[in-house]
């Protein structure tokens, strides 16, 4: 049977873990794995497998772990490490790649998803795309930047928050796209203005929006990291963040997921998102790339 694509990663991760595993204390001596460690691990793998028709490249270790969590590829995580009670968490910056972390209580998969799939009860809304110039539609691509551009241009996020959010949102303004905050890049940041109580001024909340294409999974840790970055980098006058994800699920069909809002004072303790609303938006006519 031919080798599964990227299955070499199982052996590389297992070798790195084994070199750090202390059987006496049943713990690892160093949890952080650097980009240099990954490159060295790949070179050792190549040396141990001279039968390969082409050696695995060690020149792009930054994508080594990123590809695993984006696709939530549980089969690429060594079963032995999972049995010992460890999974991995992406870490970026300062030559870091990922970290070995203990499993949470009740966790049975290396990279579980707490985001349910849509059901027959998920609302489906047709939304017009005729306001998009034909010239821009001819350049449609399948990447996240095009997806977020379409979502912003057609006011899909605004529409969703107006129709399905339990929050009393009266206005949504797009602030920026592809925002680099610390070690995280947020696909779009919007400002939601909410109705307040009698005699009170409207309150503002930051909307952090992540975009995912057809073959990518919604990664909770990534969105949680975006919320943390927003509070670390933006003015203290904004104390509420609303995590949003837009994801292509079929041809010209975009699913919008709204997660429970996070208050600044609780962001440091956030480990899991709670889905509070979702809907599917069908673009009519279809938009190329979506």
Secondary structure layout:
Layout lengths: L7 H11 L2 E2 L4 E2 L3 E3 H14 L13 H9 L8 H5 L2 E5 L5 E7 L21 E5 L5 H5 L5 H10 L2 H8 L5 E13 L2 E11 L8 E10 L7 H14 L6 E11 L2 E7 L2 E2 L11 E10 L6
Parallel strand pairs: 6-13, 9-10
Antiparallel strand pairs: 1-2, 3-5, 4-5, 7-8, 8-9, 10-11, 10-12, 11-13
Report on the structure:
- The protein is an alpha+beta fold and 290 residues long.
- The chain has 2 domains: 8-102, no CATH class; 124-284, no CATH class.
- Helices cover 26% and strands 30% of the residues.
- It contains 8 helices and 13 strands.
- The strands form 3 sheets. Strands 6, 7, 8, 9, 10, 11, 12 and 13 form an 8-stranded mixed sheet that branches. Strands 3-5-4 form a 3-stranded antiparallel sheet. The chain has a two-stranded antiparallel sheet with strand order 1-2.
- The chain is globular.
- The two termini are 35 Å apart.
